[in-house]
């Protein structure tokens, strides 16, 4: 049987970030759901997202950035699934200093989520968008992101306790400025920043297809 992949995009992103992947199997993109309340717990949200993944089905859960956090939570509910993290993290110890500060102080509540699309050079540097095409895609995704969803997701992300005992395969960029600690803990370290799902799509496709054979 061909492998089955469930792809979970990053914060506020959608299937556009996966457009350059070439996977040999059945591919589904899990679409973000609106949070039921501004304080919906992440495990509760993950359980709703997991409805799209049949319980007894062997599959691959591939999560990018915040999508990797959800992949781990969904994977805990689907024992037949194997989890792959791309540009993501496994617990608060891997957050950058600003993320740890926000976790300790609640600083993230003071920063408007719509700020980043208005600072294009900052966004381009932070995400490591290397060329015009990557930046245009990044900017459009940021502009399309729902503000209420972003506010909920950031709060969940910085407070997430992690799942350190869960086996995962990790792919990370060596120049990731958003989550710089991830490369040291990854089995696959690729040249590039946080957007390796785009800039290294060919190599990531090769890795995923090889893993699934």
TrEMBL record:
Domain AB hydrolase-1: 7-204
InterPro entries in the cross-refs: AB_hydrolase_1, AB_hydrolase_fold
Keyword Plastid: no
GO molecular function terms noted in the UniProt entry: hydrolase activity
Pfam annotation, one family: Abhydrolase_6
Keyword flag Hydrolase: yes
Coiled-coil zones: none
Keyword terms, alphabetized: Hydrolase
Name of the featured protein: Alpha/beta hydrolase
């Amino acid at each position: 049987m061909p492998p089955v992949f469930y792809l979970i995009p990053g914060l506020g992103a959608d299937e556009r970030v996966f457009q350059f992947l070439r996977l040999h199997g059945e591919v589904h993109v899990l679409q973000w759901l609106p949070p039921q309340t501004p304080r919906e717990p992440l495990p509760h949200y993950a359980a709703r997202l997991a409805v799209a993944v049949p319980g007894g089905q062997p599959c691959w859960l591939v999560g990018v950035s915040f999508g990797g956090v959800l992949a781990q939570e969904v994977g805990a509910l689907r024992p037949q699934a194997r989890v792959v993290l791309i540009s993501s993290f496994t617990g608060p110890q891997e957050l950058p200093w600003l993320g740890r500060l926000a976790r300790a102080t609640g600083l993230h509540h003071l920063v408007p989520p719509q700020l980043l699309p208005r600072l294009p050079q900052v966004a381009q540097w932070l995400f490591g968008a290397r060329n015009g095409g990557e930046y245009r895609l990044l900017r459009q995704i940021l502009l399309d992101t729902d503000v209420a969803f972003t506010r909920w997701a950031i709060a969940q992300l910085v407070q997430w306790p992690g799942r350190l005992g869960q086996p995962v395969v990790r792919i990370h960029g060596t120049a990731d400025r958003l989550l710089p600690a991830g490369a040291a803990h990854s089995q696959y370290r690729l040249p590039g920043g946080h957007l390796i799902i785009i800039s290294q799509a060919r190599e990531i496709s090769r890795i995923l297809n090889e893993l699934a054979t």
